[in-house]
Design goal:
This is Putative membrane protein. This protein has about 120 residues and is mainly α. Helices cover about 80% and strands about 0% of the residues.
């Protein structure tokens, strides 16, 4: 896959996820740690805007390097929410397939960070 396509695929992933924050916010609300101030929905919408903005920055070659760095930071920033989801699913004895998927998502976050950093490093 060419570096340009790799960047556009990352942008598509972020853009799709960001859009889903607005179309189906409830699942994202449950990822928000209670310790954060304010309403979960506000954080859901803010993170959706962050993903959409980051996707746009990656799409534009001139801002791709900065956008990809933001994407890597975003993937790190949402990691606590993924941990919360996995622990909540375990505590609430959600169906086993749901728990397995929730825990498998955790190590998959790091390849996303690596992908974003690769896009950053190859941006002109």
């Amino acid at each position: 896959m060419s570096e340009s396509r790799r960047a556009l695929a990352l942008s598509l992933l972020l853009g799709t996820s960001g859009t889903l924050h607005f179309l189906m916010p409830k699942p994202y609300d449950r990822l928000i740690p209670r310790e954060l101030p304010g309403k979960a929905r506000t954080w859901t919408y803010a993170s959706g805007l962050g993903e959409l903005g980051t996707a746009l920055l990656i799409t534009i070659p001139r801002t791709r390097r900065f956008g990809a760095l933001l994407a890597a930071l975003l993937f790190v920033a949402v990691f606590p929410g993924n941990v919360k989801m996995a622990l909540d699913y375990h505590r609430k004895r959600r169906p086993l397939p749901h728990r397995v998927v929730a825990f498998l998502r955790l190590p998959l976050q790091w390849p996303l960070v690596a992908w974003a950093l690769r896009v950053r490093d190859n941006a002109r």
